[in-house]
Amino acid sequence: MAGTELSVPSEQFTKIKAWELMPPKALEVVQEEGACRGREHLGPGNVEAQDTYGLLEAKMLEGERGLVLTTEESEKHIVTLQTVHFSSEDVQLQDVGWLTPQGREGVQGAVRQASGGEQSLLWLDEGSQQCVAISIQEEAYTLQELEVMQLHVLEGSVAVASEDTKFVVSLAESTGWVKLEKGQGEDQPSAEGGFRAQTQEQFFLVEAKPGDEGSDEIVLTISNLNVGEQEDRPASGQGHVEKANSTDNQKKAKGGRRWPVGVAPEVRAFVEWTAPGKPQEAKRPFCCDSCVFTSSRISSFNRHMKTHSTEKPHVCHLCLKAFRTVTLLRNHINTHTGTRPYKCGDCVMAFVTSGELVRHRRYKHTHEKPFKCSICKYASVEASKLKRHTRSHTGERPFQCSLCSYASKDTYKLKRHMRTHSGEKPYECHVCHTRFTQSGTMKIHVLQKHSKNVPKYQCPHCATIIARKSDLRVHLLNLHTYKATEMKCRYCTAVFHERYALVQHQKTHKNEKRFKCEYCSYACKQERHMTVHIRTHTGEKPFTCVSCNKCFRQKQLLNVHFRKYHDADFIPTVYQCPKCSKSFSRWNNMQRHSAKCDAGQGKPAASGKVRRVKRRKLAVLKEAGKEDAPKDATKEVSAVSVKQYPGETVPVCYGGVAVGNKDLDEDLSCEMILQMMDK
DNA sequence: AAGGATTCCGCCCTCTGCTGGAGCCCG
DNA sequence: ACGGGCTCCAGCAGAGGGCGGAATCCTT
Question: Can you give the pTM of this predicted structure?
Fold first, then answer.
């Protein structure tokens, strides 16, 4: 691209056909068709130190095409822009201060020696052919090379050019800014001249950009520079390189360069743009020194630079917040007033700007998604979303956690992740005040814990209902997924490949009293019960009290015995009905009583289940010849010790030993009653 | 230069899925 | 009493939608 030709001076020979000169502020060079064809590289070895001008002249003559230079008065001149190299052997170009090679066949030029040994070279041809060479001394270059851009007028004339007037276009040392300067002791320029001579130095910025697409044009703009404070400018010929400040050091670290004090950002931007080694596609002439902004237009660049300015002249009269532009202020005030002039025709939404409305309509109504992923079918309304999506393909994770190895694909996820380090839980349940790290987690919590009509997930293969979809997935995986390996029933020879089928099958064995006594007709469902039962036949009592040597068939009964008779600290727990103060040894019995208890109406009737248990126990007592036992056998027996369970599910205890947490096992309870009555 | 249009960035949100600990149930 | 299996639950991260607002582009 033509615009980038300037940016790679070391390897090319660039010609610009049309140059529209707009002094003193701007010069625009417009390249006509095919202007950037010729290229060649002239390395240091190709340049004879003794005949630098000869080289330039040769290159100049070599150009098949020229440039049309147009002054403000529409005068046109053909110029060339070319890049040549000078080697360090060009000793005559160094240490000569301002050199005016007068007498070299009408060519005037100057070589500048910077304090750091850097050079700027400029040429001004005032003969029939006018040549202006601009040198750019880059630190990135080896000092053995000096880049020179030559602007050469091939045809026409510059009205202001005269023997008495020398215009010097140079780059101040290592800054890249261009100085147009009237020659020593010269007169004021002609009013008709393209260059307006001045007694003071003027600094210009050369801006090159491609022309209209397809026209193969290049536009070169030379603009007045606003180079900060005048006193901060390095004087011409006295350029110096200050010790780099921190910002400069950062740039240096990134391969940048050191800058003299007072060099304006625009200047730096220009020189950075022209630096060799920079990818061509990345070369935009104006690079902000404070951020990553680049622009091909100085107008945009200047406007951008205002964003780094703290100047905000437009103040909101409602909140005193200041803004840089009127538009920003107006939009801001709209947020106060609620003014949203752009209303959606398809819904009630309204927006401050038209762009917001367009975007909204794409999201909600038209579903137009112009940004399409080249890898998958994803498409998005916004480019930034596509960019974010693309990271899911590339795996790029630009946002690295500073405390662990986690890296995120976007800033929000990193921010969210950081809560795992900080412990921050910004979301609080409004009901129970439990806090959560993510809003979604809290939402699920509220839904499952505090909401009615909680959605449940029905397993399609069984009756299981699960609160969360993710858990249903686990359920399906564990119970309804085909397994290659056979799963055998623990009670028979049946085999299954699905765990749910196995479980269901095994349940068919559940009510079978599979354990049958070999001495009597007793049968039971659990092997442990049969073990205990068998001891009634064998007389085996394997559990012996260490204090009194009394033996028991069951460990639990030994424990009850020990607590009751040998544990001085043992205090039976009693539960009282809060309404009538009736005492219960079991929490669940008390609860059951309390639910029906009306303290003013006397003792509630025992439930059917309680009655059945009592009858059974009293029958056992009677059979055992214990008819003098207390009438309230249940209370007497169990009011020894009760484990306290504050939850809803209450274990059933006998003598302080939990024997189950569901229905009474009557086999056990009767035996226990008998055992305890024996004591 | 002004102002509208467009682009870009950042933030917040939802939905989703995976994971592991806790507690319950059951054998 | 114990262990295994299951569900509940919170934590955490991936992906994407939607919008506010600032910056930049472009037209007049």
Answer: 0.39
